[in-house]
Amino acid sequence: MNLVDSVVKVVTNASIIGAIVATIGTILLGYWLRKTNRLKEGAVKSLTTVTMTVALPLLAFNSFMTPLNQKTLQQGMSVLIWGLLIYIILIVTMPWLYAKYGKDERDVLGVLTSFGSTTFFGMPIVGAVYGAKGVMYASIFNIGYRIFLYSYAYIKMSGQQLKGEHIKKMLLNPIVVATFLGLFLWLIQNAAPQVTAMVTDSKTGQASLQHVAFFRLDATMPWLYSWFKMMAALASPLAWLAIGGNLAQMSFGEALKNKTAWYYSFNKVIIVPIIMIVLTVITSAMGILPVDHIALATMVIMMATPVATVAVNYAMAFNRQSLLASNTSLISTILATIFIPVWIIAVQLLGDLPLFK
């Protein structure tokens, strides 16, 4: 299959185009609703709260309600290691992109470039395009993100030592709890007490009696799992509406004139994903930490997200280039919304390579 055929195959894929249209369309809808005051400021905050405390935790947890097999386990471990390695690499290299800036700006921009909105912006898109397996990989990948975001980023931005209260806050985060609980149950399911239940194959849609762990809710308690799925399905539309609503509340004038914010956003949304692609292509060709197409796509989309809200909050809380951080949040969100479809198409094309089969 030549490049033209591959491009045609991707751009005519109804599920991919549908996910892209749903993402951009819902963000624009949220923008319009807030701009016309049909969606109040308090409602935007409520959408974010429900997404972060209910929908996204259930989205992460549900993704682990799947059989454990050797291939998926190997992919998950590769994604976990990549999730740790990439942040070490970004933490070391990103400040060099801002070598001409003063130390304070360089430090802040280095942190902001390293950490994107992988949970609130990335996971809903991954779930919409790549389903439960993509969400599972995203949840595993995010383990490294949260470790460094609540440790290195906090210390760097605050100039303080990491305190127990910050570790407690990280560990009690509903998404973190759901991720580790789901991951733990997924890993031990073959050793746990088994029951016979009707299991539907996600690919063929055919149901058959199988032995599964008693806590595999998709098979043993389908009535509860259906509710969990319904609540998890809210993650994407609620997150996208909130993103659009937040954009409508930001001041465009000053941000659009800020050249540093544009330079930062280019680095965050374009350069960082390219680094992720180049590293995975090289290592997969060498047989080191190989990943399949869905794992690659998940990691690239997570890297192409706009600046992390937590990182911006650090900048504001500790008075570290707070205006610049706000401007980067606006510009990078706009740029990410434009370029996420480009990255989805790019990784679909890369998926045709033997490296990622």
From TrEMBL:
Segments passing through the bilayer: 12-32, 44-65, 77-97, 109-130, 136-155, 171-188, 227-248, 269-288, 294-318, 330-351
Bilayer topology annotation: Multi-pass membrane protein
One Pfam match: Mem_trans
Primary location recorded for the protein, binned into one broad class: membrane
Keywords: Cell membrane, Membrane, Transmembrane, Transmembrane helix, Transport
Subcellular location(s) of the protein: Membrane
Protein name: AEC family transporter
